[in-house]
């Protein structure tokens, strides 16, 4: 199944390259300027701490104690492995081996569930009358029941969206924030699909389709998604440093 998921992601990526050509990929690399890279690293640091806090809270409820500092380091290692190895879940397996499978599964599942519900609510409700109030009420109820888990998940999801918006700005996208936000939410939902090559595949495919549907062009969508992938990879490099240190100590 793991290799089927990888092959599926590779197939999606191949179709994107076939439709838009290699130029958007080259444009994405050229657009990865220092400001965008620094912003991605800083934002990812916040989202990593948020995710580590969520994992720690869930693990504690399940009877496993993970110190916050250790959780942050483990999450950085996990993100780097997910961003560099096929399948996009090797890092989570690494965490599970070291700290137990059940808390890691609960952490990943909870984070994806909150992301899907929040993004779905925004996309479905849109500018409908009273939508903001309804969404705020739903969030308030969720926070009252699972405050730490929901709050940290929302911070993490928002951080990923902001990095995508940074990529869109660096790539020279002319659309307004109001137009880009639903596109970013769609692409982030696609990025969570377990059918990818280290995160690549559905993200670029949905970005190309969504940007084309919005009149911004499939090539521009591909450029933004690829640049997001580059920024996300660079932002996980602290995990590589931690893995190297751990290997040296071992």
Automatic annotation (TrEMBL):
Membrane-topology annotation of the record: Multi-pass membrane protein
Subcellular location: Cell membrane
Protein's recorded name: Flippase-like domain-containing protein
Source taxonomy: Bacteria, Bacillati, Actinomycetota, Actinomycetes, Propionibacteriales
Superkingdom, taxonomy of origin: Bacteria
Keywords assigned by UniProt, alphabetized: Cell membrane, Membrane, Transmembrane, Transmembrane helix
Membrane is among the record's keywords: yes
Stretches that traverse the bilayer: 32-53, 116-142, 148-168, 180-200, 206-235
Entry annotated with the keyword Transmembrane helix: yes
